[in-house]
């Protein structure tokens, strides 16, 4: 066999459960900061979750001679809104072996092919941004505000607790909010409930570390909620050794003490941009406790 012969064009198809070992092997090579055990855990988490029918369960792959040579995860979620269900998709972990890199765009295009889906990529690598531009993705978030939330004053009377300690009897949480908090607790996120008057507000954070521990906001109902209750939340998290909050935004946040970091853009494709403060069921939520080094407490 001539080793210098042109490579056979890879087949692009959906990832099936039987492919996950090969996908984990590939991603361990492509993202060596995380070992194979991490990627096996990521694959298992995808295998265990429900997903909306009619969409890929795991994502797409390139296959050559029975071997996985490229892959991308597509995390589809059905999000109930007031009068309809919205389908969102967080793309993640796109990698193609060097010999097949020229076929990588075909893989990315397949992953973003569905109409009436809101696609978003919250952690794009610098090398993927030209591809995102070509596929019609646009930035919707410039960066995040790193807030010393515990220094913020308390605005109004409220009580906060971990979702695991929340008494669901007579709960003011909607069934959708309760399910979201439970799901993200299972993913290793910090799920909190803030009771204020006759309301129960859900908050989800992912604990991360970059020189110092901080909590990245994954979900709140609306950005004004995190601003109003930042002091209460910040002091609650400070007891866990987390002094800072990272909040997605497009500029400094009035009323919070901290620094805007204009270096973490997020991209989307679809009829509307995702709301700031809503990374629920994204790759950060699903995989964050694996790749951040903090597992569920």
UniProtKB/TrEMBL annotation:
InterPro entries in the cross-refs: Acyl_CoA_acyltransferase
Domain of life: Bacteria
Protein name: Uncharacterized protein
Lineage: Bacteria, Pseudomonadati, Pseudomonadota, Alphaproteobacteria, Hyphomicrobiales
């Amino acid at each position: 066999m001539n080793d210098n012969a042109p490579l056979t064009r890879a087949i692009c198809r959906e990832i099936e459960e039987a492919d996950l070992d090969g996908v984990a092997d590939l991603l361990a090579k492509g993202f060596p900061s995380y070992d194979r055990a991490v990627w096996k855990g990521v694959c298992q988490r995808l295998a265990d979750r429900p997903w909306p029918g009619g969409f890929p369960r795991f994502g797409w792959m390139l296959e050559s001679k029975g071997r996985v040579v490229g892959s991308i995860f597509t995390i589809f979620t059905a999000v109930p809104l007031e009068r309809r269900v919205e389908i969102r998709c967080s793309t993640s972990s796109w990698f193609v072996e060097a010999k097949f890199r020229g076929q990588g765009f075909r893989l990315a295009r397949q992953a973003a092919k569905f109409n009436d889906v809101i696609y978003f990529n919250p952690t794009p690598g610098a090398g993927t941004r030209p591809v995102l531009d070509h596929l019609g993705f646009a930035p919707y978030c410039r960066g995040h505000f790193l807030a010393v939330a515990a220094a913020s004053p308390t605005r109004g009377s409220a009580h906060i607790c971990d979702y695991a300690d929340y008494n669901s009897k007579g709960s003011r949480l909607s069934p959708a909010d309760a399910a979201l908090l439970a799901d993200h607790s299972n993913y290793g996120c910090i799920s909190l409930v803030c009771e204020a008057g006759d309301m129960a507000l859900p908050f989800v954070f992912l604990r991360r570390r970059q020189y110092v521990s901080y909590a990245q906001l994954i979900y709140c109902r609306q950005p004004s909620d995190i601003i109003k209750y930042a002091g209460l939340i910040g002091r609650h998290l400070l007891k866990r050794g987390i002094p800072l909050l990272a909040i997605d935004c497009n500029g400094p946040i009035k009323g919070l003490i901290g620094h805007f970091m204009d270096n973490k853009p997020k991209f989307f494709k679809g009829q509307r941009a995702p709301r700031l403060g809503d990374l629920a069921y994204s790759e950060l939520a699903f995989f964050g406790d694996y790749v951040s080094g903090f597992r569920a407490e």
